[in-house]
Amino acid sequence: MTKKIYTKIIGTGSYIPSRVIRNDYFKDYRFYDPSTKKVFEKPNEEIIAKFEEITNISERRWVEEDKVTSDMAADAVRAAVESAGIDIETLDFIIVGNNFGDIPAGNAKCDFLPAVASKLKAKLNIKNPECIVHDVIAGCPGWTQAMIVADAYIRSGLHKRGAVVGADVLSRLSDPHDRDTMIYADGAGATIVEAVESDIPTGIISHASRSDCNPYKNLLTFGSSYNNEIDEKNLYIKMIGHKLYVYAITHVPAVVKQSIDKAGLHLSDIKKVLIHQANEKMDDVILRGVFNLYKEKNIPEGIMPMSIQWLGNSSTATVPTLLDLIVKGKMEDHKINKGDNIIFCSVGAGMNINSIVYKW
After folding, report:
1. Which among 28, 213, 299, 323 is least surrounded, fewest beta carbons within 10 Å?
2. Can you name the residues that pair with 86 across neighbouring β-strands?
3. How far apart are the first and last CA of the chain?
4. What is the rounded radius of gyration, in angstroms, for the C-alpha atoms of the chain?
5. Partners of residue 4 on adjacent β-strands
């Protein structure tokens, strides 16, 4: 059989901020009803309890005051390089999936110039000028989209080794008067990928994507605070939660199935589904939707590891961080064995969906 080039993960790393923000942190917040722009009559204890019931988020991590996105990304890449056992100067590319650039504390403004990847390369002190760098901005699927770009680089023969990072700070761009601020978290995850020649499929063996920009582009966007007393020049993350939920449960299962079909596999061949996490109930419905497409009733226990309970929604960082935690034995009762077929999947602003089938 003729050997082909595949993209293989040879190292993983992550950065989980030390600041733990539990749900009771929000008990004195003034949450406004998005439809009336008035303070909710319900007590915060009731709002928070309902939030936890729906999302299963009890705490999240927020970045330390003295760090920005590229700082977290640098720590994640260093950990990934160490686990890969490579010289950082041998990287041919660095791709950073992110959404807001570097955002200093107290400044609700995006900073994309230069790109986070450029700042990251400088912080890593990489001297090799042939190591190219760029960002990918694709909503929460930033890391999965960056992995697909990396796969194209490697399969084409253009590059042989690179770092793919998902890093985001959501806490500094969340409206303190919006209930959804409780969803958002910060963090970074990284993978080192490398070209391997094999006569059997390995590494990334297929992927599928979908983008629906009209009429869905405004389901997750920037907008003014729900509190009209706040300066309207400051913009915050805004999402139309129910419509986003409906979009995700309607379209993500089919994209996952498409990626499995492209790989020439069946759902029964999949050992783990590592999915972006913003709402545990939504992910449960998505997974059930995938199984329904295969007319399978029984979902294997532990197939979809969840970190949302204590990490919240760290956007592009969610999936690579989850992968790193499992690989390094930090997710109880979860492991990935050699030969396992796993799914990397994300959905987010755009609206964009990616699903990757990866053979470990």
Report:
1. 28
2. none
3. 20
4. 20
5. 198
Give 181-206 pLDDT, tens digit per residue: 999 999 999 999 999 999 999 999 99
Look up tokens 């992910």; give the residue: 283
- Dist. CA 327–CA 88, nearest whole Å: 21
Q: What percent of the chain is helix, strand and coil (3-state, nearest 5)? A: 35, 25, 40
Nearest one of 78, 8, 6, 14 to 327, comparing CA atoms: 14
Which residue has 């030969």 as its token pair? 339
Give tens-digit pLDDT for 158-187.
999 999 999 999 999 998 898 999 999 999
CA angle 308, 314, 320 (to 5 degrees): 85
In this structure, how many other beta carbons lie within 10 angstroms of the beta carbon of residue 342? 19
What ranges in 62-201 are assigned the alpha helix state H? 69-84, 116-123, 142-155
Cβ-count burial 42-69 (b if 16+ within 10 Å, e if not): eebeebbeebeeebbbebbbbbeeebbb
What's this model's pTM, rounded to 2 decimal places? 0.93
Q: Can you tell me whether residue 190 is helix, strand or coil?
A: strand
Amino acid found at 140: C
Average pLDDT over residues 261-268: 96
DSSP-assigned letter for residue 268 = G
Assess contact for 337 and 360: CB atoms under 8 A. yes
What does the alpha-carbon distance between residue 99 and residue 167 come to, in Å, rounded to a whole number? Answer: 8
| Cβ–Cβ < 8 Å for 155, 7 | yes
